[in-house]
Amino acid sequence: MKQKVYQVVFPATLVVAMVTFLSIFIFANANPAFAASGKKKSSVVARTSAVEQTEAQIKELQEALDITPAQEELWKNVAQVMRDNAKEMDALTKDRGELVKKMNTVEYMKFHSQITETHLNQTKKFIPPFEAFYNSMSDEQKMSTDTIFRTGKHGKHGKHKK
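-> structure tokens emitted (162 positions)
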């Protein structure tokens, strides 16, 4: 029973952590104190899209997880959902900087709520393919995956690459 609960709770927790991790990049430029100061941000700083971040994350994870040929199709399903979610988030947050400048506080809160709902829906879409992939893993792969997602280190077996 305890093992069954772990098998359900861990993937869900893992997905929430991953979505939270991705949202940090999306909202990295949102700084209310900076906005209140009336200063303009430098236009030199370019934001990395969710698609670019996701592609890098997929590559790092693929290298770190030692995916077997038998798991390749399951991994492709996971990666595709990650890509689809990233494209959806990029479309939603495209021109966010310009939109936010024109929003009042209530509009901004509604916009943020829309992004949060999107994250929730994306997490719900991500769980089934990730759970199938996770369940196909050996115990060693699961331990490595657990470490990777718990620590955020994507090197071999959870050791951070240099």
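DSSP finds seven helices and no strands in the chain.
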